[in-house]
Amino acid sequence: MQQRNERKDAARHREIILDTASQLFHEYGVEGVSMHQIAKSAGVGQGTLYRRYSSKAELCLELLTDSFSRFTSSVERYLAEAAGRSARGKLEGFVSLAIDYVSREIEWLNAIKPSEWCAEDRTSVFESDPFLYVTGMLKAILDEAVVKGETPPFDTEFAAFTATASFNPSTFFYLTKDRGCSVEEVKAKFVQYYDRLFFA
Amino acid sequence: MQQRNERKDAARHREIILDTASQLFHEYGVEGVSMHQIAKSAGVGQGTLYRRYSSKAELCLELLTDSFSRFTSSVERYLAEAAGRSARGKLEGFVSLAIDYVSREIEWLNAIKPSEWCAEDRTSVFESDPFLYVTGMLKAILDEAVVKGETPPFDTEFAAFTATASFNPSTFFYLTKDRGCSVEEVKAKFVQYYDRLFFA
DNA sequence: TAAGTAAGCGGACAATTGTCCATTTAAAAA
DNA sequence: TTTTTAAATGGACAATTGTCCGCTTACTTA
């Protein structure tokens, strides 16, 4: 028996849910909308909604796809035109783009944070495509730096992991809102920090 | 009129709540106990419980006091006997102790994470005593390193902040549970990372 | 000691999340 | 086309969080 495809009604519902959620989120903010409300507005049952997206987090992750692909495009564009530059220079540009992205999408990123870090069945943010993309890119740049002799060899994977983790929305939100730093200031601090970190 | 002190019945309830919560948490785990259950077991109303602790997070933070003061003692003891060593050496020891602490108390630390990072009224973990203690200590060690000429001057405050934030339970849990690293491995990675970071 | 007052109390209540399962229905198989 | 099958549905339900507010009581003041 062949693999069944997604049923047409299911596909239609998927689109309706995504559209409805997107609209509601933009109108009331991510926190201001409940799953029940999304289901009701979309004209589907709670069960139908939860079948696809087991939390608001997953729903947001899906909705982030577009903006994230715009981010990766901008990164690719940047790296293409920075092809001749040192790894150090590339890192600076990449960190800058990444922080711009986080600041732009902070509300969404905040929402996809898993509510229970330690739950056994949680799907880790650390294994989400966006996170893996950033760590992968960072590791590539750091590896290039090592190959080019710009810096002595080290555990680039762990470094990329830790650096990426430090961009989390929580930290960013605190620095901008509670500490009153501007996005540019935060960017400058991180760039300086990682520059020193990897190229001291 | 003089400042009213806490009423005796209120103080009694505070203790009962703390004792009950502690007991229930140890029996069923932090996630396995609801605020309602705590209130009921303690023999107080929901309102009474929430009056003092507006979330499980706050309750856990209060319960962490003891273990955290044991941690600070161990740090103080360590720094006393390491008085003659380099700042670099002190950093290594401190990071090691801090990671030991996180790994021991991970369930509690997980619970005190604010559920909404971006809420306007949230009391930031970054302003909690434990966090401030660690950043303060880290900054002091880094400043010492700069003064002693072990490393060129840099923004030690931001560095301490970022480093402390990177110890968050989420990261730690991922590395140990999902990646299968042992506590010792994680410790070694962090020590190496920060050693390179600040003393490259 | 008596009276006044504000802190404290507690449980009903509203809101939300997430689960469950009898029923429906699209699509494959015959 | 008819039958079969399992995916899909939806809304009732259970569990939890957090708020609200009229009542109670410990402490202050006179």
Proportion of β residues of chain A?
A: under 5%
Figure out the total of helices of chain A: 10
User: Using CB atoms under 8 Å apart, which protein chain pair has the greatest interface?
Assistant: A-B, 35 and 35 residues
**Level-1 CATH class name of the largest domain in chain A:** Mainly Alpha
* Main sheet record of chain A: none
Instruction: Estimate the helix proportion of chain A, in percent.
Output: over 70%
Count of distinct strands of chain A: 0
Oligomeric composition of the shown chains? homodimer
The best one-word shape of chain A is elongated
| CATH architectural name of the largest domain in chain A | Orthogonal Bundle
**N-to-C series of helices and strands of chain A:** HHHHHHHHHH
Please explain how this structure is put together.
2 copies of one chain form a homodimer. By secondary structure, chain A is an all-alpha fold. Chain A folds into 2 domains: 1-53, Arc Repressor Mutant, subunit A, CATH 1.10.10; 65-199, Tetracycline Repressor, domain 2, CATH 1.10.357. The first copy, chain A, is built from 10 helices and no strands. The longest helix of chain A is centred in the middle third of the chain and has 26 residues, at 56-81. The N and C termini of chain A lie far apart (60 Å). Residues 116-121 of chain A have low confidence and may be disordered. The A-B interface holds A 31, 106-107, 110, 113, 115-119, 124-127, 154-155, 158-159, 162, 165-166, 168-171, 173-174, 178, 189-190, 192-193, 196-197, 200 and B 31, 106-107, 110, 113, 115-119, 124-127, 154-155, 158-159, 162, 165-166, 168-171, 173-174, 178, 189-190, 192-193, 196-197, 200. Chain A binds a DNA duplex (30 and 30 nucleotides) through α1, α2 and α3.
